[in-house]
Amino acid sequence: MEQYKASIESVDNALNRLNQTLASYRLLSQQNAKAKAEEEARKQQIEQAKQHAPPPPRDLPVPATAPSAQAQAQDPQATARARVGRVQEANARLRQDPYNLPLHLVLSRIYLVMGYPDLAAGTAYKALILSDALDDEAEEYHDEAAESLKATIQQQPLEERIQIIRRAMDAELQNQTPSELDPALDVEITLWMKEHYRLIIYRLLSRSLLLCGCLRSAMTYAERGLEIYTQDAELTEILGLVLEAGDHLPNEPDEDSPMSEWPDNGFVRRERYPWNRHEPNRFEQLDHINQLMLEASDKLEVRTIDLPSLTGLDPKGISTQLGVFAKQDIAPGEQLLCETSLLTANNKLQDALCDACSADLPELGSPEYEKVKACEECEVVFCSEWCYQAAMDSYHPALCDKDVEAIAKDVEPAEAADALYSLLLLRALAMAEHQECHPLELDAVKYIWGDFSPIPAIGQILYTDLDSPHSCTIPRNLPFSFEHNIIRPFHMLEKMDIDIFATAHLYDTWIFNTLYAKFRGTASARLSGLGGRAMRGPEVSAVHPMWCLANHSCDPNVTWDWGGQIQFTARTERVQWRGKGGKMLQKSKAGIKKGEEILNHYCDVDLPVRERREWARGALGGDCMCARSEPGPSFDVPRRKITIGVF
Ligand SMILES: C[S@@+](CC[C@H](N)C(=O)[O-])C[C@H]1O[C@@H](n2cnc3c(N)ncnc32)[C@H](O)[C@@H]1O
Predict the structure, then answer these.
(1) Tens of pLDDT along 213-225?
(2) CA nearest to 275, candidates 597, 62, 513
C-alpha cells in the first residue's frame, strides 16, 4: 500500500514538474518581444518534430476470452464462439462505461478481425467523436470521456505513465518553445491520446473504410492521421492500398483525381448478426402476425411457403419463408387488403404531403383542407385528425422541434433512393424512441424479411488479406456508405437529443444495417403527386409490413395502388404473354380461389422479359423462377410503363 502510494506521488510529482515547465514556457513566451520571429521558429520546430515517428502504440488490452492461436487452429467453432463472446463482452463493458475511448477501439478491432469492417468503422467513428470531445472542454461528452479515460490511464503501469510524461518533458526542454499542450486540458490525457489512441483511431477508421469500399473517406482519414503521425508506416501503407484499390475500379480515378471522384460506397455483409437477439422466429409467431394482418385484411392470412432459393446461397435450393394466402374466394376487381403505414418518408422539403401517411394534402382553400391538422409546436402538417393522433402516439414527439426537417431532403436525383432509406431509418428511430421500444422490436419492422445471407461457415476465411475490399470471399449485398450507414444515423440521433454512447444497445451501426436490410427488400417508392417528375428520382417511400409479406410473380393475381394507404385489388385480367412457339398464353383466370397464394408484383410486369430478369437479379438476388420469367426463350409483349414499384 505504501509502495503504491509512493508511486502515485511520483506520477503526481512528474505531472507537477511538467506543468511547471509548461507554465514557465508560457510566461517566457508572453514576455518575449520578438513574438513573431519566435512563432516562425516554433512552426519550423513542430515540422522538424513531426519528422520523428511517434513511438508505436502499446497494444490494446485483450479481453480475457480471447482464444490462443493454438486453440483457434484446433477448434474453429470455439474460436467463432469466442469472437462473438468478445463482441458481447466488450458491449457489456461499454454499457457500464459508455464513454471509454480505448474500449471502443478494442471493439472496433474485434469487428475488423471478424470480417465486419462496417461495424469496425462505426465503432472507430464513435472513438473519433470522443477524441474530438476530449480536445475541447466545451464539447458535449468532454467531461464523461475525460473521466473515463483518466480512470483507464490510472490503471496502466506506473513506469509507462512516468515514461510518457518524461518523454513530453524532454521534448519540451529540447524545443525551448511554448508548449502545444492546452493548459485547460488534463496533460496526461492529452499525452496518452497523442502517443496511443489518436493514432489507433486513424488506423482503424481508414483501414475499415477501405475494406467497405469507401475509398474517399479512407483516404481522408489516412491523410488526416499522417498530418499528425507523418512517419507512420501503417497509415502510409493504408494510403497506398486505397490508391491500389482505385486501380481495380471500372472508372479508375488516379492519384491526381479530385477527391469527389473517388467512390465512397460499397457493399457489406447482410446478415442476422450472431448477437442479434431481436429477430423473431416468424414461423412460431404466425398467430401474432395474423393478428396484425387482421388490421389490414380479414380475407387474407400469412403462412409458411417453400420458395426457390434465388441467391444460390442455400445449399438445398429451397428457402422457407412466409407468403400471403386467400382465406376465401375473391372475385375479380374485389379489394382484399388496405393497409396504412406510418413508416413513411418523403425527400422533398416543400411538397405538400401528410407527414404521417405521405398522402397528398388537399388543395389549400378546398373544403377537404378543413380536415388538415398541423402540430401546434412545430407546424408539421397531417392530412387528418386520425394521422395527427397516430403520429403523436407513434413517433412525432421524438422529432418535434428537433431541427431534423432538412436532413436528406432535396438531394441530387442519384441520391434520392438512399435519402429515402435514411428517412425511413429516421422514422423508425423516432418510433423506437417515443415508444420506448428497441428499433428491431417495432411491430412495423420486426416481421419484415431481411433477406439475410447465411452466416459464413465456421473457419471460413473471410478476407484473404485485410488489405483490399476485393479480397473478400463471401457475398456482400447490403449497400453501404460511411455517410448513410454511420455519420447520418448518429447525426440524426444527436439532433433528437439522444446520447449515442449511453444508448448503444438501442442505436448502433449493426442495428442501422439490420433496419436498412429490411427496408431495402420491401420499401415501395413513388414520385410525389405534386409535380413529381421521373428525373428527380423517387420522392416518397413507405414500408407496409403486411403488404410486403406477399411474394412476387410476373403473372400476378393482384394489382396494388398506394396513396395514403396501400391496397390490393384482385386483377380483372391476368397478364398475357407469348410462349415458346409464339403462342399467346394466359395461364390463369382472373379471381382468386380460397387457399391460393396472393401473387404480388414488385416490378412493372409490363416490362419486357430481359428487363424483368435484370430487375429480379438486383431485387430478388437471382433469376425470377415464375412460369412467365423462367430462364429460357420467351417473347413478351412490352406494354405501358408505370412509375411505381419496390426499389
Ligand atoms: C418482400 S419479401 C416477400 C415476403 C417474404 N417471402 C417473407 O418471408 O417475408 C421478398 C423476398 O421474398 C422472396 N421472394 C419473393 N418472391 C419470390 C419469388 N417469386 N421466387 C422466389 N423468392 C421470392 C425473395 O427472397 C425476396 O427477397
Answers:
(1) 999 999 999 999 9
(2) 513
